[in-house]
Amino acid sequence: MRIKTWAKRGLFFGDPDKHKGGAKDALALQEKRMADVIIMKPNRLIVLMMAAFFLFSCASVQKKVENKVEDKVEIESPEMSFPYVPEKIESWGMGVPDGFEKKEPPRPEGLFKDKVHVAARTEYEKYLSGFKGGDPALMKTGKMRPSEKTGKKASGPHNLFLGRYPEIQRASDADIQAIEGYYNSGDYRRVIELGMDVIYQSIPPEKKFRVCNMVASSYAAIGSPEQGIALLTEFIEKFPWDENAAKAKNLVKIFKGKMYRSVREAPSRAIGCLLPLTGPYEVYGNKALKGIQLALMHFSSQDQYIQVKIIIKDTESNPDTARSVIRELDSEDAFGIIGPITPLTPAVEESQSRKIPIITLIQTENITDIGDYVFRNFLTPRMQVEAIVTYAFNTLGIKRFAVLYPDENYGVTFAKLFQDNVLAYGGSIAGVEFYDVSKTDFAGPINKIANLYYERLRKSPELTEEEAAIYDAHVEYLEAEDDSEKEKPDLTLDFEAIFIPDSPKKAGLIIPQLAFYDIKDVYLLGTNLWHSMELIDMAKEYAQNAIIPDAFFKDNPDKETRGFVDGFRKVFDEEPGYIEALAYDTAMILFKLMTRPDVSSRKTLKKALAELHHYPGVTGMTSFYSSGDVWKNIHLLKIKEDRFVVLENE
Question: CA of 233: how far to CAs of 68, 173, 240, 246, 567, in Å?
Fold first, then answer.
């Protein structure tokens, strides 16, 4: 009865009109077919129904995915530039491998969640050193490093993790973290080398695309975009259903379209060089130019997609000329500017007004306050004084100091900074004396420094028995009519170190006179000007153990310094100095940043400079504060016999 009802309603599996027997025969045929269905085994019926449902679902999902991909491919962000690189590669959580302790210290975890990465990493590293099973924390420290933009260091914790546990599946995540570290530091060849291994491992499509994106963009950055296109195309073919396929198609479209150029059409960018090549400071301008030229030689020898060049301008040490030269560099589309190396504030103001990033090589106080496009890469008085005072207090344990300085701007600046830093550390200044820079005899101020102790005793309302005896012996000696018959008492000094901020020539005259007036067995502290063989030749044994801060030490055995010094000797047949090294570093920083895939304008170059952290230069690790001023991990040198040595390398 139920079958007849279905038939009457037209619910046939076939068309009754096509059967010769008419409706009656058709009904009979339909009844027979339904009977066959009814008596079919239950298992076969269930399988057929599931298969039909699965085929219908697949067709529906495939159609939706294709429509979604096609819709997304049509979207092209106007902000993308070739070679395309996301502004920031974010890390993702690693989890805890099975068998390891899952408890993590709450303080660093909280700091990490609040994005206080440096503080959190410090806490995790402490945790690692004292807690068994701290491998999750080891992974966390690597995760924090890319956020700090210390690219090369980012791979360290992950490499250690991989080496310790090569057998666990989680290692592929550590590989990706290491790749991100190299990517964020601009080491694109290393990204390609590691990334090509990871891409063909069994990892989820989401992570595979993440690596493909970094590797493809790295290929583009070194001038081989076609290899990046091939990699992205392969991803699209293998994972057409993945949501990242749309992103990959969009990148391929950009690479193949308006942004793609052959090597012959590779873009070039220029850096302006603002130097005094004539006039009273031409010797310094030419030193800086040699450093910049060597940087261009070294950088151009690398395989770079974007070509760099320099535009050299002579300021003639004239403020008006320097300002007009900035206008010329703007019209010539200079991407950034190196200089000036003499105090030419109007030129810096002009560069800021035209929004051209400029890295100055001068000591002028507050020069970076002019604006956010102004940076400074120079060993400032403040950096030198802070390094000396920190070492004196923390390593030598010195508390009392004397200052002997030239009565000119350089000496006054350093003397004030030194006093401020000593007092900030809780130390004391026994005395401060200046001298006339035109004189060669410094007996007057040296005597005052030598007698500071006795002067303090003279003014003291109460003396101990020992102090009274020392003071009386000193007065008796001074008042003796024939002092040749009296034995001179040992001089008692009121300080442990003396700071003399002057040139090597002046210091070379003063230091032996200190010994003549019995100022011995105290630490001699100077500025980077003391880093000269002239001082050793003049002061000889009296200058032994003198402590000097400097950003460049040509005998440093590290790779960067050796490459620079050897290259400079080969090209110019002379020894490089601080100015040459500083100009070299400044040029290399600009060359590397302005050819990065994500730096396509003066504005993005300014942003990249502001975010520069721990660049390994020949003048020390270099970073920029948000103010545009520089931070350097400078050397502390000591005179040992007839040479200079780095204190930490003694």
Answer: 18, 23, 10, 11, 42
